[in-house]
Structures are given as structure tokens and as C-alpha cells.
């Protein structure tokens, strides 16, 4: 019969626990970090041309004309006024946030919605990334996040 005895000390036990915990933490950071990056990419959609912008709008359930009705360079103020602050709160519901872009010039693309008169999808783009989007009806007087537009009315 073979027997073995192991002499343990408090230091060896604490060292083993620290090594095991460090592997667990490393695994959580490694696998959890990938999900966070994917979530950020889905919010800040990379678009390099009009076809990709129209494709993004279509992915949200809207049929628009193929070219924007207007394209403007907009300088976002460094300190937002009440209207910009309210708009930013609205689009945050879709995961966007304009505050990192305050003080910067962004492109504003406006696309008419094909099935609804005087209804428009607006995209804000900075360095080929969509940083904000909404749907608004100029006749009916409403503005919603691109995710909450529902039946357009």
C-alpha cells in the first residue's frame, strides 16, 4: 500500500488560490471583452458610402429614396443647448451618444421615407461611423429613435 503525505503551509494555500483566481479573472476579461467590442461595433456602424447608409436604414425597416435629399456639415457645439441635449437623450435610447462629438464637425444625411410623405430618416456620421439616427414626420410633428418608429405614425 502506497501512502503519501503533503505538508502544506498557509503561504502555499494562499499562493494556489491567487493563481487560480488570476486564471479566472483573465478568462473573464478575455471572453467578456470580445462581447463588449461587438456591442460597440453594432452601435457605431461603419459606413463608407451612400449604399451602406441606405443599407443601414433598410436594416431598420425603412424604404427610402436612394440618394439623400440633403447633406450638410454640422458643427456640434462644445456645450450643447437644450434642444441638442434633448435630442441626444432621445437617440441614447438606440445606443447612440453625440456627447463625445461635441465641438466637432459631423455630416448630416437626410433621406425621405418612401411610404410616408414628409417623413425623413436622419443620420449623423463622423469619420465614416453612424453616431446618431432618428425618424421624424414634419407633417405630424413627431420625432423618434430609428428603433422606435414602429408603424410611422
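Sequence proposed for the structure above (153 residues):
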Amino acid at each position: 500500500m502506497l501512502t503519501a503525505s503533503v505538508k502544506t503551509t498557509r503561504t502555499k494555500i494562499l499562493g494556489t488560490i491567487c493563481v487560480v483566481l488570476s486564471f479566472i479573472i483573465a478568462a473573464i476579461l478575455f471572453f467578456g471583452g470580445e462581447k463588449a467590442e461587438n456591442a460597440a461595433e453594432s452601435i457605431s456602424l461603419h459606413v463608407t458610402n451612400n449604399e451602406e447608409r441606405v443599407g443601414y436604414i433598410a436594416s431598420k425597416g425603412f424604404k427610402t429614396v436612394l440618394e439623400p435629399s440633403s447633406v450638410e456639415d454640422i458643427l456640434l457645439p462644445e456645450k450643447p443647448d437644450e434642444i441638442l441635449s434633448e435630442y441626444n437623450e432621445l437617440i441614447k435610447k438606440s445606443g447612440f451618444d453625440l456627447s463625445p462629438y461635441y465641438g466637432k464637425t459631423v455630416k448630416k444625411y437626410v433621406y425621405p421615407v418612401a411610404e410616408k410623405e414628409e417623413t425623413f430618416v436622419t443620420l449623423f456620421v463622423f469619420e465614416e461611423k453612424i453616431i446618431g439616427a432618428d425618424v421624424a414626420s414634419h407633417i405630424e410633428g413627431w420625432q423618434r429613435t430609428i428603433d422606435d418608429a414602429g408603424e410611422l405614425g
